[in-house]
Structure formats: structure tokens, C-alpha cells
Amino acid sequence: MVGINRLADDSDSIRLAEPIDSVGKLEIVTSRTGALIRFNTGTATLVSPNKILTAAHVIDSDRDGQIDVSDLSQYSFLLGDNLAEGAEQSLGISQVSLHPSWIASEANRVADVNTGEGYNSRYDLAVLTLDSNVTNVLPISVSPNVLAGTDNTSLLGTTATLVGYGKFGSPFASMNGDGLRRAAENVIDSVANGLIRFDYDSTYEFEQEVDTGINHPNLDGSFPALIPVANSSPIPLPLEGGIGQGDSGGPLLVESDLGVPTIVGVASQFIDTEAIGIPLSSYGSVYVYSALNDPATLEFLAAENVINLEPTVAAAATTDSYVEVVNSSLDVKNISGTLSNSGLLAIDSAAVEQADISTALNESNFIPNDNNLEI
User: Fold this and answer.
1) What average pLDDT is seen over the chain?
2) Distance CA 339, CA 329 (A)
3) Domain ranges of the chain
4) 263-285 burial code (b ≥16 CB/10 A, e <16)
5) Neighbouring residues of 294: CB distance < 8 A, sequence distance ≥ 6
6) CA-to-CA distance for 281 and 294, rounded, in angstroms?
């Protein structure tokens, strides 16, 4: 993660992410051939002592409604500021739950602006259960668990923080992830139909007068219609940036009424509105997050014991800038990690950052060839 604007420095992005230690990297071994190991990778967030939240397409990269790897011993959740020097914690997974509407619903498939093909960002969510509790890192609460203005109106115009371990650079998120956690900021431009969207504003004055990003006229040719946002400011924040491959599943954080970060969305994909050939996350790109205030999503998160939908607000204890949520007892409905295929549209792009890792740890990423990129 993270492409950050050219007026900021990569060290600013690293420093912004440093205290957000409940965000980690999810690694899934998909195949082993001699010394060659292939992974699916994404970003995930600790949302309770034994639960992590990520994007469904990290688990189901071919979008057929079934998890790609059924052997849970091949899953690892890694915590640490610099994973290249070794994870501070490596945790196994005991259960994988895809959002039940990830494949079942055809609503809100964010489409490529040229091909019209796409997938379901509205429900691009998965909850994984860890095989042991994390005791020395406080989870980040999901928005319904804390007093926060997370309705559509109050989120608009809010400055949010995006976090991940994927590709990075300035201003392009084009360099392979190096194990460092990074973050950037952006302003939420649109909250509708279970989606949160915002764009990456250019630092160049001549580009601030051009219809790019969230104001790009071609976006209303996609399905569902991602109509331009007329009041989106073209002026970037000092730490403005966007996400790239490998950041899928990462959190979108806003400050709650308690003054602590809360998750309001999960990274699903980006659209390069100006792509010629290879799409890149940079100025003008539009980022699409699964909004966590969707009714079907709230039911899913409650069933997974991530949130409490009871009228009484969950008790919270704060330490520094984090909130630990104590959920009341809920009946847990185990949602199967396999779902039947119900006709999800296929697209060309790679669903997650994949790396062929040899004994020398050389990394080569697959690069999609359309404008609409899952991250």
C-alpha cells in the first residue's frame, strides 16, 4: 500500500501507519512446486481478539463463491510494522466465512467503464476466525459498536485513513510491497448503495481543472451507475493517497465520537479512469470500499460476533488511540466458506496481488490488463 502524493514522502506514509498495529497481512499458500511457493495476499484487520475482517475476493479470487484454499493450515495472519524483518505475530485460521451475499446478489457490481464487466463490491467481505486470541494488540472496532456518525450523510466529506501492505510509490502505487505497513488519507466523496467511493486528487494545478477521478464523465457509463460527484474538491490533502494491489481487505478508518478510530469500510477495488494499457493507482483513480452500514452486512457481522446489534451500545475501554469492544453474548451462525455459484460476471483482472516466491524471495506480480482492478 499506498500511493501517496508527490508532495509527501514515503516516510510520512509509514509513520502514519505505525500506530495502527491491528492491521496485518493475510497470506494464503495456493500452491507449492519444489522451492516455488505461490500466495494470495491481502490486508486484514483485527476486529475482535479472535476475528479478522478482509475482502471476500482475497479468499475467493476466481469469484466462484467458494474459497480458493480449503486447507486452513495454509492461511496466516501476520502482524508487524515491517514483515520483511519477520512478523511480530503469526496466527493461524480456524474458520473462513464469506459474506452470504458476495455471490448470491447481482446488485452493485462495480463495472469496468469500457467492458461493463465487474463484480460485487457491495458485499466483498469475509470474516476469518483465528485459532487463538490476540492478547497484546487491541482490535479496531467496526462502526456500529461505537458511538459514531456513520450514516451516509455524516460520512460525506469526512477525512478517512486507508491502510495496507500492498504496492506503494509516489504518486503511483506501482512498487511491489516490501513488508512495510503504509497509510494515506483521503476525503469520502460518495456513500450510496452499500459503497464508499473517493478519488485521488492531483497535486498539479493544471490537472485540478480536468474532469478526472470522481468527476470523470465516463464513470456514469458503468453498472451500477457511478455518477460523478459534483462537489468533490480537486485539492488534495497533505497526506492524500490511494491504495494498490495487495491492499484488498484493508480498513477505511474514521474517528468515532469517542475519539478513536473505527472501521466504516473495507477495500474492494480501484478504477483507473485514465488507463492506457496497464491500470495504475494514481492521480484520478477512484477507490471503491464495501460500506459496513449496509443492513445485510450488519446481519453478517453480528452472526460472526464482530458487532452487537442489541439496543445497548457495547461497553468500550480505550487505550491510547484504540478501542476494545466487549460484545454481549450472541448466538453465532456459522456461515459456510463455500457458496454456490450464481452467475457472477467474470473479468480479466487478477483478483489479488499474487507473488511467485523462490528461495531467493524474488517477487513478480501478475498485472491485469483492463481498467478495473481488484486490489
Assistant:
1) 76
2) 27
3) 3-374
4) bbbbbbbbbbbbbeeebbbbbbb
5) 122, 123, 194
6) 26
Better-scored residue on pLDDT, 198 or 172: 198
- Tell me: pLDDT of 244 over 50: yes
Mind listing the pLDDT tens digit for each residue in 40-78?
899 999 999 999 999 999 999 888 888 999 999 999 999
CA atoms of 59 and 123, how far apart (whole Å): 13
Return the C-alpha cell found at 230: 459534483
Q: What's the grid cell of residue 65?
A: 463463491
pTM, rounded to two decimals: 0.78
Note whether 50 and 133 are within 8 A (CB).
Answer: yes
The verdict on whether omega for the bond into residue 238 sits within 30 degrees of 0, i.e. cis, is no
Nearest of 139, 154, 148 to residue 51 by alpha carbon: 139
Percent residues over pLDDT 90 in the chain? 36
Return d(Cα 333, Cα 326) in angstroms, integer: 19
125 alpha carbon, distance to own chain's centre: 9
Cα dihedral angle (224, 228, 229, 233), rounded to 10 degrees? 140
Contact of 269 with 110, CB cutoff 8 Å: yes
* Opening angle at CA 288, ends 338 and 110, nearest 5: 65
Q: Tens digit of pLDDT for each residue in 317-329?
A: 333 333 333 333 3
Q: Are 347 and 117 in contact (CB under 8 A)?
A: yes
CATH T-level topology, domain 3-374: Thrombin, subunit H (2.40.10)
Q: How far apart are CA 232 and CA 200, in angstroms?
A: 11
| Predicted confidence (pLDDT) at residue 353 exceeds the cutoff of 70 | no
Cα separation, 123 vs 55, in Å, equals 9
Cis peptide leading into residue 224 (ω within 30°): yes
Whole-angstrom distance, CA of residue 172 vs CA of residue 4: 7
Burial class (CB in 10 A: 0-12, 13-18, 19+), 360: exposed
Beta strand extents in 170-259 (DSSP E only): 182-187, 190-192, 195-199, 241-242, 251-255
The burial of 362, by beta-carbon neighbours within 10 Å (0-12 exposed, 13-18 middle, 19 or more buried), is given as exposed
